[in-house]
Amino acid sequence: QCQLSGLWRNEQDSLMEISAVRDDGDFKGKYLTRVTLAGGCARASPLKGAQQQPGEGGWPTFAFTVRWDKFSNATTAFAGQCFVDAAGKETLTTMWLLREAVGSLKEDWKATR
């Protein structure tokens, strides 16, 4: 079984800490990113999400959002799945979309990465 709660590190050395996942799948935590739009040092930002409980023999899917409001006017949505290999190592795979605020509708084209 894959457990989302705990401390996770990604390839860019950013850290994510997820508190206990509630019975309904909801969870909260914080994301300490080392990659920022403005550059500089690592900053912690709040995250909120939900995990879909898997069927028998499956791996859970999840989604969460991170508000980067302490250092950037942007929000990122992540969606992914948790896997466990034969040795018991848990791995999260995710895709993300980052939405940055822009000054006008004409600039909307460059707001999402």
From TrEMBL:
Q: List the disulfide bonds.
A: C2-C82
User: Quaternary arrangement and interactors, per the entry?
Assistant: Homotetramer.
Give any GO molecular function from the UniProt entry. biotin binding
Q: What does this protein do?
A: Forms a strong non-covalent specific complex with biotin.
- Its name, as the record gives it, is Avidin
Q: Does the keyword Iron apply?
A: no
Q: Give UniProt keywords alphabetically.
A: Biotin, Disulfide bond, Glycoprotein, Secreted, Signal
**Where does it mainly reside?**
secreted
Family named by the database record:
Belongs to the avidin/streptavidin family.
Name any one Pfam family assigned in the record: Avidin
**Where is it located?**
Secreted
Checking InterPro entries in the record gives: Avidin, Avidin-like_sf, Avidin/str, Avidin/Streptavidin-rel
Q: Which organism is this protein's natural source? A: Scopus umbretta (Hammerkop)
Keyword field contains Transferase? no
Top-level taxonomy: Eukaryota, Metazoa, Chordata, Craniata, Vertebrata
Q: Which GO terms describe its cellular component?
A: extracellular region
